[in-house]
Amino acid sequence: MIWIRTNYQKFRKHFKDRGFFCAVWRGIKYFIYLIRKYRLERNLRIGKKVIKNKNTEVICFNKNIKIYYQGKEITKDVGLNTSLLIKDKCFALPQAKWKVKFKEPHRLSLQVKWKKIGILQKWEINLVSPEKIIWDINMEVKRDIKVDERKASIMVSSLYKRWINSYEEGFFPVIRNWEEIPLQLKESKFIGVRNFENDLPNIIFDYAKNYFKTSPSIQNTGKENNARVLNACMGKEEYKEGKYPYFKGEILLIDDEQILEDYIEKAREELTKKIFIKGKENFKVVLVNLPWEKDGKWGVRAGSRWPHIKTEEENNYQPFPFFLAYSASLLKNNGFEVYLIDCLAEKMDFIKLKQKIKEIKPHLLLAETSTPSLYNDLEILKQLSGDFLIALSGPEANIRKKEFLERNPFIDFVLVGEYEVTLLELVK
Predict the structure, then answer these.
(1) What residues does 251 pair with on adjacent strands?
(2) What span, in angstroms and rounded, lies between the C-alpha atoms of 151 and 234?
(3) Fewest CB within a 10 Å sphere: which of 83, 313, 329, 397?
């Protein structure tokens, strides 16, 4: 009744201000608007469907496929999405016509159709455990077509601040406009996001079992979507009329940090096993955790999250230099002669280190630095420099700038991030 009264009052106002014909014309235009609105909503409406288990819910509604974990939404915008690039035009999921084929307690089947390009996708979403979702897509092509790029994507919450690409990680920039995150590792089998500041689970988007060669892509959306995007990208494909597989992947929701670390470490091991090159005969590499001592107290650096000069209470504390050890193992397994010198563990001063290096006569020396020890390390390396190359690694941001190498000409290379594979490529 309120709706009728409101529109009657508008009709009277138009009739009074501009006459009968104007009022009728306004009424006809509004009626056409209501018909179009109804048709649009009818096309968008897909009836709310939910599959769930102990921790996870997948909710399908209005062309959005949302994922909730312990009652909190971890997706954003459309949620799960596929897209096809054809002749520079992108056909994404919201443009398709949807239909739910069937629903079981832990399984949902959808039919997604782009009538304009003659492509029909059949989705199956399975909740196989409280932490794992299997996403399987097949495709039926109605006529011959060439697709320039294919993607399967997850749009996740902007509360996630850190991205994962196999064992490569980094922080997302502030969301402004659509932006591609630069990734160094192109052969990863999974991407994801890590949670540090809230109670959302870590997410891994694993496409190792996909039907096609797949490459990673991670993006920020613009402010209007306010999301992070995890893309599994597949290359060009020419389709004849027929049925084809499109994508198969797993979405893992991980609360336990140790499980996530084990997952990442396994990826690192699998990747390094694939790398094998023939080492140069007698090519020598020295990996060193440099001396760092002040007023009789020694520091901790490699292997520590918080490099510092130890207190008296910490006298026996000495972390294991993980990345130096990873690098030594990888180089050794590939035929290179490797020496690892941990001056902090051995309390080896500069004079003894210099004598040791003189005896080895390396071709390359790599030192791992840190922010609090940077100037100490640079002074030592400057005095050590000789007839060999020097590489520097570590989390200190300033060493990654071009100006740093210009100011410190005795440093030949800077290795960014987790460096064991990069070092092997450099030595090669």
Answers:
(1) 133, 205
(2) 6
(3) 313
Q: Alpha-carbon distance 6 to 426, whole Å?
A: 75
Instruction: Say if CB 63 and CB 93 are below 8 A apart.
Output: yes
Q: Between 34 and 111, name the one with better pLDDT.
A: 111
Q: Name the nearest CA neighbour of 291 among 366, 354, 377, 198.
A: 377
Taking the alpha carbons of 59, 62, 64, 65 in that order, is the dihedral positive or negative? positive
Mean pLDDT of the chain: 87
The pLDDT score that the predictor gives to residue 177 is 92
Burial class from Cβ neighbours inside 10 Å (0-12, 13-18, 19+) for residue 385 reads middle
Over residues 60-70, the pLDDT tens digits come to 887 789 999 98
pTM of the model: 0.62
How far apart CA 24 and CA 187 sit, in angstroms, is 65
Whether residue 44 is predicted with pLDDT greater than 70 in this model: the reply is: no
State the Cα–Cα distance between residues 408 and 400, nearest whole angstrom.
12
CA neighbor of 79 nearest in space, from 155, 144, 132, 130: 155
pLDDT over 70 for what percent of the chain? 91
Q: How far is 8 from 11, CA to CA, in rounded Å?
A: 5
Write the CB contacts of 376 (distance below 8 Å, at least 6 apart in sequence).
290, 292
Retrieve residue 14's tokens: 């138009």
Give me the count of residues in the chain: 428
Residue with tokens 């100490």, as numbered in its chain: 376
- Check pLDDT > 50 for residue 45: no
Dump pLDDT digits (tens) for 350-368. Answer: 999 999 999 999 999 999 9
**Helix or strand run (H / E) with residue 257:** helix 257-274
Beta strands per DSSP E along 226-283: 227-234, 237-239, 242-254
